[in-house]
Amino acid sequence: MTSPAVPTVRVAPIPKQRRQTFAQWLKSNGWRHAIAWVAVAFAVTPILWVVSAAFTTNPTISNGSLIPSQPTLDNFTRLLNNPDQPYVNWYVNTMLLAVIVALFTVLIGAGAAYAFSRFRFKGRKVGLMFLLLVQMFPQFLALVAIYLIMAQVSDVFSGIGLDSLIGLGLVYLGGAMGINAWLIKGFFDTIPMEIDESAKVDGASHGQIFWGIILPLAAPVLAVVGLLSVIFTINEFVIASALLQSPQKLTLAVGLQQFIGEKYSENWGPFAAGALLAAIPVVLLFIFLQKFIVGGLTQGSVKG
Amino acid sequence: MIQRLIARLGGTPALLLKLLFLGLVNGMTVWAIPTMISNESWLMMAVLVIATLALDFILLTSRYIPAKYVIIGAIFLTIFQLIPIFYNVSIAFTNYSTGNIGTKPDAITAIVRDSAAESEDSTSYDMLPTRNATGELVLILTPQVVAVEAPADGSGTLDPSAPSASADPGLEEFGGEPAASEPALEEFGGTETTPSAAPSGDLTSGTNDLNVATDAEASDLPPTYAGTNEGLDELPASDVQRDEFGTVVSATGFVNVPGEGFSNLESEFNDLAIPGPQGGVIKPQGYATAVELVPTLTYDATADTFTSLDTGVVYSNNGSGNFANPDDAEDVLVPGWREYIGFTNFTNVFTDSQIRDPFISVFIWTFIYAILSVFLTFVLGLSLAIVLNKPRMRGQRVYRALLVLPYAVPAFLSILVWAGLLNDDFGALNSVTGWHVPWLFDPFWARVSVILVNLWLGFPYMFLVSTGALQSIPSELQEAARVDGARSFQVWRRVNMPLLLVALAPLLIASFAFNFNNFNGIYLLTGGGPAMDNSEVAGATDILISYTYKIAFSAGQGNDYGLASAISIYIFIIVGTISAISFARSRALREDRA
Q1: In CATH, what number is assigned to the domain containing residue B480?
Q2: Partner-chain contact B409 A64, CB within 8 Å
Q3: Using a CB-CB distance cutoff of 8 angstroms, which residues of chain A are in contact with residue B503?
Q4: What's residue B590's pLDDT?
Q5: Is the domain of B84 the same as that of B121?
């Protein structure tokens, strides 16, 4: 950036300038492109393969080529019209669950972050350390216990115990506070206290400061936490597979795993279609929020 | 605008919302209390009541303002993270597993019921499945009179009100109500808790029909009973219709189950256990006969032992949840019950060679997998970040966007897709390259596969964070080094790398901790397989967490919740220790820099 000004071809073409020879180009940037191409091929080929399989009728995994010769939507109709594999249910279940859990996760995390960032109270430090410690015991390590607890909950509240998406969502919220509170608190700490204080002078209550000032200002970090939560929920397999049972109540991860497991040759086409449909919203969301995520990742590392 | 809207909401509507929420929570708790009392879920009731009261107190008073913002998250954390952890620890000290699910009384009931067998003097019945006015299944039972043997012998003892003298009186108590124990067992969520006592679908035993005396005179006809789980109820002879052979064909007040409906009766037959006059239970054998099964084990409550009527062996309480033959520790009665067994699960990992050998292989592989995953993804990600970190390089943004794609696709999908691509019969990789590599079915190649797939999944993340870290290194530092005469390699070695590592070390540790427990990366790709020689549960690619999962939930030899919980505690100790050390060290590093 601070290198001495070199006139670039684009800005000010100077006729006398020698064209780079191929060897020179190779030495300066060419090898970079070569490596990048190989890496991109490694990254993208499996994805292209699935996209292609999704639009090929009866692809065996092998005979699919990267560009389907006669693209069809066969696999999609096969996928969506199979009553044994209620893909639409899985899809709706997963997306609704992910969004709702993310919403509550953000609120729970932000609430805790607000308390730890803006108030000084007894047990504050201990509380913060405690959250960090609890986070080291991942929830799914206690899977057996969670399963047995939910079995007992089923006997009392039949709708939110085993085989219930609400129950699954509640379990996920158990892990909402820990690391998220830390991540969000790091951001809250950068918002000057003076803003709160001037609002307080104007008669704002702590609730109004939280909802009206802090939360809107912290939108970027809330977006990151929300997105990470969405991705977590969509990917979560262990707890969901232990708690959910009925076919129409499964999430995509559990449903698709059962759908494709052991029947790769048979179900490959519809599976590819299903995978494509499931991946699209997440990839779009990711691209949309990528800047925030990268920032959040590195920030989390520095703060954490 | 949104801010103003929210500010305006701060008044009455917010208060109403809060009261509505609290009303709902309180209502649910109060509504649930009677059920919890009848279920005897005391712990759950205590948790729910305390949580509700705490919520009410903190949200309705203004004494603890910060607590208002933490309480809901804290309740979730407590119920779904803290309590499970403690519960998990307590399970680790029990023998909770398939065969040791319920309470001791349940186990005793089940042992007596399961020991029921057809003995030489068991009475067989002709059976006619019918339904009564309320649609309940009722078996019309007529004792079979065996022609070869002395007739009418059996019928003399067939008075439901007088149990035969040969049966132990204690048996009645347990054998009489086997159905009652079923719900109690299911409560613990165990799958396939008890083997079914009688092979009810066994049609071959129906050949007994042939022995029925067909020439019996009307006056000698045995009485006919209506059998339900409550017992046998003798029907007046006038209510029973017979065909010319004397076989009962219908009974007044009962509707025969049509022949085509028989196949649906299986589950109802399984639930049926009619207390019989000999102290056993009458179970259907096929669709036309039933036989009274008599327990072969008797329980002595004062001595707390079982005695086998066949062999005379006395089974005593072995202290770890089973009745066992004192002369042969392997000879235990199933089911057992849940019992605290101290550190047995923890020590078994080191002393029981059947558990130890696979555990050690899995343990070592877990470390290899986690370390290799972090190392390879970091090397690849960082290298690409360096290669692409050239100002004014053409196509840089496109390259970056494409390289990040594997990170954007939900990992579970990618892993399932890879499992297809690596399939050795028809997977794309083998068929395109013409190789015949058993990617997922050979122990070595399966391990290569899980690492390869994890590299694909993980390098974009490392690429992203490395790029970020590289760009945050102040260029003044590099220039200063150059001015001082450092070559570019030296600049890298002495300036860039240390700065990078300080910034990325916590992420590398986190990545290690993640991969240490990367369940999806293993289970969705290989299922932990292929199987290892020394274990029925562990496979070559199993890491500790997937091994634990299989022990608890999907092992062919049953579920061992106790052992699984103990191993999960070991995992916690390992990951916790590593995290704590690295946390302290990275802190030291950072302070060093400052």
Answers
A1: 1.10.3720.10
A2: no
A3: 298, 301-302
A4: 58
A5: no
Task: Taking residues B102-118, report their average pLDDT.
Answer: 81
CB atoms within 10 A of CB B541: 27
CB contacts, 8 Å: A143 with chain B: 549, 552, 568
Q: Do B41 and A1 touch (CB under 8 A)?
A: no
User: Are B49 and B179 part of one and the same domain?
Assistant: no
Do residues B250 and B189 share a domain?
Answer: yes
Cross-chain CB nearest to B84 (options A136, A149, A212)? A149
The mean of the pLDDT values for chain A is 83
> Does B165 have pLDDT greater than 70?
no
- Whether residues B127 and B84 share a domain: the answer is no
Q: Which domain holds residue B513?
A: 349-593
Cβ–Cβ below 8 Å for A115 and B479: no
Taking the domains of chain A in order of start, what are their residue ranges? Answer: 22-72, 84-303
**Minimal Cα–Cα distance from B194 to chain A, Å?**
18
Residue A282 Cα, gap to closest chain B Cα (Å): 7
From the list A150, A75, A20, A2, the residue with the least C-alpha distance to B478 is A2
Q: How confident is the model at residue A43 (pLDDT cuts 50, 70, 90)?
A: very high
Which residues 117-146 on chain A approach chain B with CB closer than 8 angstroms? 119, 121, 124, 127, 134, 136-146
Question: At the fourth CATH level, which superfamily is domain A84-303?
Answer: MetI-like (1.10.3720.10)
Say which of A46, A207, A208 has its CB closest to residue B417: A46
Predicted confidence (pLDDT) per residue in B166-215, tens digit = 334 333 334 333 333 333 333 343 343 334 333 444 444 444 444 444 44
Lateral strand order in the sheet of B314-317: B297-300, B305-308, B314-317, B323-325, B328-333
B135 in a structural domain:
yes
Residue that wins the pLDDT comparison between A295 and B314: B314
Tell me: pLDDT of B589 over 60: no
DSSP letters along A84-145, please?
A: TS-HHHHHHHHHHHHHHHHHHHHHHHHHHHHHHHH---TTHHHHHHHHHHHHTS-GGGGHHH
B110 pLDDT above the threshold of 60 = yes
Using one digit for the tens of pLDDT, what is the confidence trace for B491-536?
888 888 888 888 888 788 888 988 999 999 999 998 887 887 777 7
Q: Is the pLDDT of residue B558 over 90?
A: no
Same structural domain, B224 and B371:
no
Q: Rounded to a whole number, what is the distance in Å from the CA of A108 to chain B's nearest CA?
A: 5
What is the predicted pLDDT for the residue at B364? Answer: 95
How far lies B344's CA from each of A78, B100, B341, B562, in Å?
52, 15, 6, 10
Is B572's CB within 8 Å of A141's CB? yes
pLDDT at B594: 41
On chain A, the residues whose CB falls within 8 A of the CB of B416 are 256-257, 260, 271, 275
Coil, helix or strand at residue B332: strand
CB < 8 Å from B in window 77-106 of A: none
pLDDT band at A15 (very low <50, low <70, confident <90, very high): low
As given in the structure block, the two tokens for residue B342 are 């101290």
- How many angstroms separate the CA atoms of B463 and B382, rounded? 6
Of A162-171, A261-270, B585-594, which gets the smallest average pLDDT? B585-594
How many A-B residue pairs are in contact by the CB < 8 A criterion? 310
Which of A35, A137, A286 is closest, CB to CB, to B408? A286
Instruction: Print the SS3 string covering A166-222.
Output: HHHHHHHHCCCCHHHHHHHHHHHCCCCHHHHHHHHHCCCCHHHHHHHHHHHHCHHHH
Measure in Å the smallest separation between the Cα of A36 and chain B Cα atoms.
7
B54-67 in b/e form (b: 16+ CB < 10 A) is: ebeebbeeeebbbb
DSSP letter string over A228-271?
HHHHHHHH--HHHHHH--SGGG--HHHHHHHHHTT-HHHHHHHH
